[in-house]
Amino acid sequence: KEEQSSSFHRLSFSLCMLIVLQFVILFYQSKTISSVPFFLLLTPLGWIWSGKFVLLILLFMLLRSRFAWRDSVLFGTGCLLCLTGSLSGHALQRGAYYLLLTDWLHFTAVSIWVGGLIPLLSLSRLSRLCLAPAPWAVFLSRLIETFSLWAILCVATILMTGSFNAMVYLRPKGVEISEYGKILLLKLSFVLIVMALGGVSRFFILPRLRKIKTDTAQAVFKLEKWFFLVVTMELATAFIVLALAALLTQTQPPHLRSGSDRAEPLTKFAVILPSRIDHNPIEQPLAVEEAVPC
């Protein structure tokens, strides 16, 4: 019950921060347009913003409700929230709509994997205060086993979708010469560190926890310190990966920056937003920064 209450407060705070961030994004967008309602109702970026905002409010309401299928609905709504991230990524810029699926799977797998590290650490700490060394070792071993199954599935999905996206977004030698490629390589190096730390928990700590049969407090205490250290390092490294992933979303892949493989949907379907400088949008020429893709 204590962990449920703590998780509830953490999730509520995180959702409130995401809602505030949505308004910060809207304020930033409003600097380039003269009509916020026009942006929200008549542009694809506005539709994505509105959809994400509705999903965040829905998640906040679901957290405070109680019904049989609440957890399943929460999971499905969270997956839809991940979809809004792929809709505003590089996939539409390239015009390759099949990349929406791989981006969506990538975002969802990362969210499940990294998001599970926080309750894993919290549950292990709380259970340590309530259980004797031997029962705690049994509980922690089962907890690691359950988390490992999800982690293996998520890591496999991340590697497959990430490799596929990298092959599509990068041209030959693009990794070495482009800024996008350099950030991607740096991100991959930290991903390998996170995977190595996860392997330590799975293949080093877990087998030793299974061998504990009696109240050997000293052995449990030593494993406890190792486990908390490894998971904390894994979580910190995962946040670095997320920061680099956010930087990648703001960095154009080499073929998009050069314009050699620009997506047709970005230029064929566009909405000209009213400018703050020229209030006659009919006579105003189409500018790149004022063209919103449909």
Structure explained in plain terms:
This protein has 294 residues and is mostly helical. It contains twelve helices and two strands; from the N terminus they run ααααααααααααββ. The chain has helices at 2-30, 36-42, 44-63, 70-87, 90-94, 98-130, 133-169, 174-177, 179-210, 217-249, 254-258, 264-268; strands at residues 270-272, 291-293. A two-stranded antiparallel ribbon has the order 1-2. α6 runs antiparallel to α7 (133-169). The model is unreliable at 259-294 (pLDDT under 50).
Beta-strand portion reads under 5%
Name the helix and strand elements from N-terminus to C-terminus, one letter apiece: HHHHHHHHHHHHEE
Mean pLDDT: 76
In percent, how helical is the residue content?
A: over 70%
Identify the notable features of this structure and list them briefly.
12 helices; 2 strands; 294 residues; 78% helix; two-stranded antiparallel ribbon; disordered C terminus; mainly alpha
